[in-house]
Amino acid sequence: MTTRILLADDQEDVRIGFRLILDAQPDMTVIGEAADGTRAVQLARHLRPDVVLADIRMPGLDGLEVTRRLAAETRVIVVTTFDLDEYVHTALREGACGFLLKRSGPALLVEAVRAAMAGDTLISPQVTVRLLQGLTRKPPPPLDDPLTARELEIARLVARGHTNARIAGELTISLGTVKTHIGHIQRKVGAANRVGIAAWAWSTGQVT
């Protein structure tokens, strides 16, 4: 199945860059572009994309309002230059299924789209770490099936905001092996996604 994507950003060079990255994926295609939020909502309702990538600061409707209007109809990933907690909280509250900084890089952009299609929420690691550091620590709940030493090592790297590719490189293991370990960690700690893994690691004192 090919994931159909709509780009909403008032900067043409950003749209061109995202299109080049996403159209290069065998399972993704960009079906439309909008330079303002009002047009993005119109195109989304006409083209019915699987995923909308919406910049926050756009003429007309901003990306947060676009998210509010479209989140019930499709998956919206908010992409922004501005690393502000207020934006993150509002985007997620309005139903965004991802929050990416534009400097996150192409690999994370592709990963965010795939995560959205899988029902997960991916947040830029830089943002995730800062948000999770604010969590109040609680005594670690006992796990019925404790993490292995390798799984604990990977959970800590996830909590520090590492991507799967970076974890694979740092531990000299394959990307597939990293994904397998992350799947096992999610099951053991009861996390829906890597954000949940990071939350577990921070709240239980596995990282400081």
From TrEMBL:
Keywords: DNA-binding, Phosphoprotein, Transcription, Transcription regulation. Residues 4-117 form the Response regulatory domain. The modification 4-aspartylphosphate is found at residue 55. GO terms for biological process: phosphorelay signal transduction system; regulation of DNA-templated transcription. The keyword Transcription applies. SMART domains: HTH_LUXR, REC. This is DNA-binding response regulator, LuxR family. It comes from Nonomuraea gerenzanensis.
